[in-house]
Amino acid sequence: MQAVGIVVEYNPFHNGHAYHLKQAKKVAQADVVIAVMSGTFLQRGEPAMVDKWTRTQMALAGGVDIVIELPYVYSTAPATDFAKGAISLLSAVGCEAFAFGSEDGSIQPFLNTFELINNHRTEYNALIKDSLKTGASYPKSLYYAYEQLSQKFPASYIDLAQPNNILGFHYLEAAKALDLPIQPLTIPRITAGYHDALQEDAPIASATGIRKALATSHSLQSVQHVVPETSFQYLANWQKKYCTFASWEAFWPLLRFTIMRHTPTELSRYAEVTEGIENAILKAAKISQSFSSFMEKIKSKRYTWTRLQRMLTHIYTGFTKEQLQSFQAPSFVRLLGMSAVGQAYLGQHKKHIELPLISRVAATNDAMLAIDIRAAELYNLSIEQGSTDYILPKDFQTPPIRF
């Protein structure tokens, strides 16, 4: 059985995701689709709107055969490390190819872009440093360096201002850097761009657009036309039980408490908290009644919204710089769910999986896994606050979902 891998967050699983996984299976001529999915906290430094078990159910209902978890260490990391963690796990479970959605839609410009940067790495890094000295953010400095190189050595390259192209490039870069025997494939993104708002007459929307629509209208019916019926039902069940979807705005009371119980020196211990930003974070938390007002006080030209959110995620979960530096690569494969086809694949390939395959978490002692469990417990705490009727499943007790 041949497997194609995809890297996902499914926040939530929508019609565009359904299209992507079907195309990935078709283009790769694969029998099995394996998704490596972020857990409770995501790459842009925010809590997933529903927990990983609900999103696993959406994925399996939508056609994914196996869902494995991208550990917190990588799911909340900058794009380079996010990609390394994800692609190494897909390779470890035997995927011959991985397929990603992109604005470009063709793999050759990605390969050209990789060769451009890889062959001129010293000049590229020097251009980044020059840009950073002007006070530009790191993402803008990367783009500046890329633009300078691409003008100097013209060819067919990708647009690295587009979010899916950026992630796709890092996936390909990770596979090359780690020398993994896994083929990169790309599927053109259709209809909706990453940041586009919902269109009433369009059946496909971005996950960002869906979340914004829900935050504005507070009505699931407003997004029903852009998600599969199964996803809609899982979202409706969640809303009925917990009343709200997870967000930093909903988590603000606990996040604010977590920040304020620390000194600036203590805050500086957490991953990605640098250059004295801890002082501004603590000062703003003391006077902000909402997450949005807090962010407005601390954002700046140097710190992107995403980078700040990742800092706050690490503060909330207690993830330190020391812990981050102690991990070099994924140490396990955690199985979240599988279809009958996925189960058959694992039966055939289990002996060849390069990392321990974990389904019974309670019986495992792994430092990286312990961080995932802690993150899930703190996520659950914010969801359950004020509720005694509905308690989320305990992460360390929950077995893989069989679909």
TrEMBL record:
Recorded catalytic reaction(s): these are: cytidine(34) in elongator tRNA(Met) + acetate + ATP = N(4)-acetylcytidine(34) in elongator tRNA(Met) + AMP + diphosphate
Compartments it resides in:
Cytoplasm
From which organism does this entry originate? Lysinibacillus macroides
Q: What is the lineage of its organism?
A: Bacteria, Bacillati, Bacillota, Bacilli, Bacillales
Name the positions where ATP binds.
7-20, 101, 164, 189-190
| Family statement | Belongs to the TmcAL family.
Coiled-coil-forming residues are none
Its EC number is 6.3.4.-
Which domain of life, per UniProt?
Answer: Bacteria
Pfam families this protein is in? HIGH_NTase1
Gene Ontology cellular-component terms for this entry are: cytoplasm
Q: Name one GO molecular function term.
A: ATP binding
Top EC group: ligase
Tell me which InterPro entries the record gives: Rossmann-like_a/b/a_fold, tRNA(Met)_cyd_acetate_ligase
Alphabetical UniProt keywords: ATP-binding, Cytoplasm, Ligase, Nucleotide-binding, RNA-binding, tRNA processing, tRNA-binding
Would you tell me the protein name for this molecule?
tRNA(Met) cytidine acetate ligase
The record's section on HAMAP family has: TmcAL (MF_01539)
GO:BP terms for this protein? tRNA modification
The record's section on NCBIfam families has:
PRK13670.1 (NF010191)
Functionally, this protein is described as follows: Catalyzes the formation of N(4)-acetylcytidine (ac(4)C) at the wobble position of elongator tRNA(Met), using acetate and ATP as substrates. First activates an acetate ion to form acetyladenylate (Ac-AMP) and then transfers the acetyl group to tRNA to form ac(4)C34.
- Principal location: cytoplasm
